[in-house]
Amino acid sequence: MNTYEKTISLHGMVRDAVVQHGGNRAVVFDSGDSPSTCLTYNELFAFGNELSRQLEMAVGKHEQTIGVFCHTNIFLPAWIIGILQLPAAYVPLEPLSSSGFTLRMMDRCHLKYCLIQSSLLQHFQSVFSSFLSIDVCAEWSTLKLTLIKMYRKMPSQGSSAKQWRANNQMLQVEEARQHPKEVVPRNVHQGEQIAYVLHTSGTTGLPKIVKVPHTCIVPNIIHLRSLFQMSPDDVVFLASPLTFDPSVVEMFLALSSGACLLMVPSAVKRMPGRLAHVLFRRNMTTVLQATPTLLRQFGGCALKEEVLSAGSSLRVLALGGEACPSPVVLRSWRQEGNKTHIYNLYGTTEVSCWACCYELPNSFLASDSTEDASVPLGKSLMGTVVEVRDERGCLVTEGEGQVFIGGQERVCLLDDESIVVKGTMRATGDWVVVRDSHLYYLGRKDRLVKRHGQRVHLDNLQQAVESLPVVDACAVGLHEGSRLVAFVVPSESRNVSSTEHVQVSEDISFSCTSLEREVLQELSQLLPNHSLPDTVLLVPALPLTNHGKVSMEKLMRTYERHRGVSGDHAAWGDMDTARATLQSLWKDYLGLAADAVVMEDAHFILSGGDSLQALRLFDYITVTMGMTSAGLLEVILDGSFADVLKHITSMTHHGRIQTSNKRQHEGSTSGIPPKKYHTKVTSNIVSERNTSPEVSSVRRTVGFVIVRRAGDVQELYYSQNREKNSLMDSPKASEDLDRKRVPTSESSGSVELNRDILAGEEQFHYVNQGSGDTSQSGTATDNQALGLRVLWRSDTGRCVDASPVLLVHPDQARVFIGSHSHRLQALDLSSGEVVWERVLGDRIESSAAITSCGNLVVAGCYDGQVYFLCVDSGDTWWVFETGDAVKSSPAIDPHTGLVIIGSHDGHVYALDPLAKCCVWKHHCGGGAVFSSPCLHSSPRLLYSATLGGQLRCLRPDSGELMWKYVSDVPLFSSPACSETCVCIGSVSGHITALSHDGHKLWDFHTDGPVFSSPCLASVPPPVNKKTGSRVYDNGTSTSPANEVLLCGSHDCSVYCLNTADGSLLWQFQTTGKVYSSPFVFDGTPWGRSTLVALTTTDGTVWVLDVEQGALKASLSLPGELFSSPVVWGRTIVVGCRNDYVYCLDLTGSKEQKKTSLSTRD
């Protein structure tokens, strides 16, 4: 093999070729619909020399970089050679890229000069004139080229100036974080002439700037020229754009060999038929280097009959830039008798361009074996060192590890590096398995994911899908970090009938029946269940990035559109149709025979299903129904076939009102039946309604109380000198605001309750004392029996799954709660009268919160927005948009006033309602954030859980990750904190406690999934039945109160655990699943120590004694209950799925008689 001198350069190799092949065609430009144009080597080099001379006169010989802003054209290689000969490095700028991205490239490369294709000069000026001062230095009509000099300018005034400064400040902070300054070590490599400057894709942050010396790229050209046996007779296609470094290999592989470089307009590259005609009929292309995705654009028929036909002109097919297709796929592309040599290339932009090369032997391609699942990366190229290291940095000779690439000369400069250590090895982020001295590609580090505790290689899954006969091409990705989606292009041999798929949009269709089932069934024979995709989506073609790779971003947008389209509602129309549809799906997702009988009491999990299959069934049902449900997944996991059918038909009934995702504006008609208001509304409420976010200063000078689910009660107060419109004032908190308090009767004495009772709902229900007795009548054995009755109810128009929040002032108390009708209501606690009502952009499942200033109510919405509304009037103060539905309930940081909330886009956001800005956001590593964040005061920490199975501990002020706990199952439950631990439930049935530094303290197992969020409370220890005295942990009768955890489970039980060790104190069996969070409150008014209220999905509200779990009262409401109750004074407020919000009165028998008499009076 030839060696090379250090002084050799890209343009030097072209100069050598000109000497030998001056009269040969060097460049051909062919659009396919007109005669092609060409330049000989002599003409090409003459143009290059002329440009170099002109540049030297215009910019001098000391300019290091020059930009190139152009489309592909016949003069492009001459422009490149002219810049290199100056000598300077060229910086390709893509005309179709965003202005911000291009400006960043210019800034990072310190560009002063740019060569612009003359036809694009006006476009350049219109895009960049507000950011740059542009001087035209020279115009060369022969080369169709204009040279400009650029000066960065800052807008002088107005919002654009502020935005410019803000953008630059954010950019500097981000770059400083990603690329901190480093101390330069000794023994460095520097001073090499840079050939070109590119950028990485930027998938993990800001794109890196990569400066590539001639000494790094020339060895690639020389070695590949030898491997491909290049000759002057070859025609090499310039497949890659100038911004993608394989273009350098393509261009100089041809021009250093005396061969012909073939170029086409960018538009032709997107037209597979015309491109194949230009390449193989008009120009007889012999060397093609491309990404597998670009090659697939030709389609199976054209690949076999033209590109890789028996008589194809193509000598060399080099595939790189993506994982190489499996041998099975490669064989399917070739026609029998094809002689093309196929190579697998592997490399990374940070060590431009290729590092390894493997030629597939003919025997490999001719074999019918399916055992060879992947193609090796091959041997390292000239001057390149390739190592595999494990996570500890140790070399791997057998097994899995990450690829590192480098070499003495194969070194590029990243970002602001000007010097680099000799032999530097760059981490690639690519993982391989070393087997029998061969490296086999597994995937990017971020493409290795865990599902149910098992590792899944997404690229391996993609290869497995592509190996199926019914599949022509495939791309696999994770949506929201959890939903595994396979985008499938059906093979041309597969004739998909119109009955087998539903057209969703102009560019996508998805299988409802046979093809999806066929793909999943065949994959189940090849892969373990945890590797199977949740959704198979049929697409006509895989979209490309500018670099010819699969655009996963475009595919995910397509998937989101697919999910947003209402499906086949007719399949769920009536009970019989819904039953038949569900039976068919039940058998499909469980892999049962078509004639299998599905019994009414069949259980999905017990019939052989698992949680992944349940998620797939859930996904299909919600897509085809065009709606979702808070309880559907739980019913599938834990209920019978009859339960699932009942839930679906209930969804269908409630969903007929609203199936569109279009937002309802405030002034528009919502299509929802009008609200059933109370007939009498007091005048003082009407007078308080405002049209601005200003609030009265009078009432805010005193304290207020906020009451939320899970026993969260906070007291706040203000100083006395507040002025009107003081939303900017910060509250002062009572001691330990974020500690959970048990509401007491003393703190609520100012709330006078209306004792009017709705007709037909005035009966009381009593229960016997004693744990586990669920009867609703009998004689009490302690001070007095307790009863529940309905004080009032308010119709919201649709199901209420959200939990209420109460804002209590000395002179009034209000309830704020959202509904699936899109409505957020403010109700008077004493009467149930509607103070105000707002219709938001979509359904509201997020429980509202009150900001620490007491002036704003905050709620998330299915439309992806977080709404900040004035508590007095409902007027909009601010709306913040996330990337997906917001079902999480906000947490309020009492120290900073920040509102912290999760979104189904996988982020947690910290929002400043006063400044109306997002202070920080944190990506939770995959999986939607359904549960509510939890703040802990000391140490000051923030906890957030995801449906991807992660519990994350963050710094509340910055969103910085402290530690994370990873579960194998989704976490719907919200975390709860004590002084020593954080507790959370999971759908695997576990309630887990972790220390505040992330160590597991204990784990308690229930017999069903836990969707309920724990409630922590300090209560007196139990009474010794023999002595009658309370028994404390230290054996004495004097000790602080014990801390207990109360949490429900889908096993129809509520559990009381000791938070110190997770031991069971008591268990109470209910009549339904416990989805809600318990609420602990003071029982003193009824002669008891501490009580807890909870609800079950069968519609029952329960009140228990916390000490022993004895039932004190219960009441059945006419609808399912997913909402969590809140308690204030003697009232319990809860939302119901029969569309109503209920306020219940908890009282004793003596009070009941007294109240009844006073009512008669």
From TrEMBL:
SMART domains xrefs: PQQ (SM00564)
Biased composition (Polar residues): 654-671
Keyword match Lipid metabolism: yes
UniProt keyword annotation of Lipid metabolism present: yes
Domain of life: Eukaryota
InterPro entries: AASDH_AMP (IPR048005), AMP-bd_C (IPR025110), AMP-bd_C_sf (IPR045851), AMP-binding_CS (IPR020845), AMP-dep_synth/lig_dom (IPR000873), ANL_N_sf (IPR042099), Beta-ala_Activ/Resist (IPR052091), PP-bd_ACP (IPR009081)
Domain Carrier: 576-652
Keyword annotations of the record: Lipid metabolism
PROSITE patterns per the UniProt record, alphabetical: AMP_BINDING, CARRIER
GO biological process, one term: lipid metabolic process
Compositionally biased region (Basic and acidic residues): 722-743
Region of interest: Disordered: 654-677, 722-751
Family to which the UniProt record says this protein belongs: Belongs to the ATP-dependent AMP-binding enzyme family.
PANTHER family for the chain: BETA-ALANINE-ACTIVATING ENZYME
The protein, known as: Carrier domain-containing protein
Organism, as annotated: Electrophorus electricus
